[in-house]
Amino acid sequence: MRAEAVDATPAVAVRAIAGDERPAQLAQRLQLSLTSLPQAARLLFSFGPQGLELQAPGRRLKPLRVDFTGPGVERVGSQLLLRAARVKTRPARLLDLTAGLGADAWRLAQAGFIVTAIERQPLVHALLEDALTRAPRLAGTGSLQVVCADARSALRNLEPSAWPEVVYLDPMFPEQGRTALPRRELQLLRELTGDDDNGVELATLARMRSTRRVVVKRPLHAPPLLPSVDVCLKGRAVRFDVYLVAAGP
Hints:
CATH topology of the largest domain: Rossmann fold
Strand order of the largest sheet: 7-6-5-8-9-11-10
Shape: globular
CATH architecture of the largest domain: 3-Layer(aba) Sandwich
Number of strands: 11
Strand content: 15-25%
Helix content: 25-40%
Radius of gyration: 19 Å
CATH superfamily of the largest domain: Vaccinia Virus protein VP39
Number of domains: 2
Order of helices and strands: EHEEEHEHEHEHEHHEEE
Number of helices: 7
């Protein structure tokens, strides 16, 4: 019986650039192949004039790149998010459990929060780190740190002295039929991270570690992750469910 051909194309590689050490350093850190061929992998990290981006050679998908300087940072519902996360503590610590492309974390840091954003996917984390090197300086007390970790483990390992005033999460909502396809620039993100089915667990753990409130971003008509929502702020497409927490340590 004839054996079927096996696709030996690497899933992800880093494109080499003559005279530039960054690709080799990134490949070593992420344990990826380094290549000079544009079609050498199904997904390809490439350093371009606008920063690090993840490309899909041969596919009609927009490259995935994080940028904290453009208009895309002003995402739908950003003002509602600030209202949902607002606390009297100044400055307030905020833990973003689902950083994704970082737009919400950056917006919160701009508003003065001390933000730690957690991203479990190392490839997405690399894009976030690159964006921070190009980001403008934050005014006031705001700051943003991105960490590559599993959010559940990070929550469980938090010492009481490090519990944040606010915990924020935006679980990736599963697709529901053909009409729910994400925008092209987010298709690669979904391929990398998959649908997040840990939202309920994360929200439950968050309520045990936040000292003031937990904020959950949801599609407008989706059910809440947890019952007993204290405050609900609704926009045209999304809403923010707020769970208030009694003062912690």
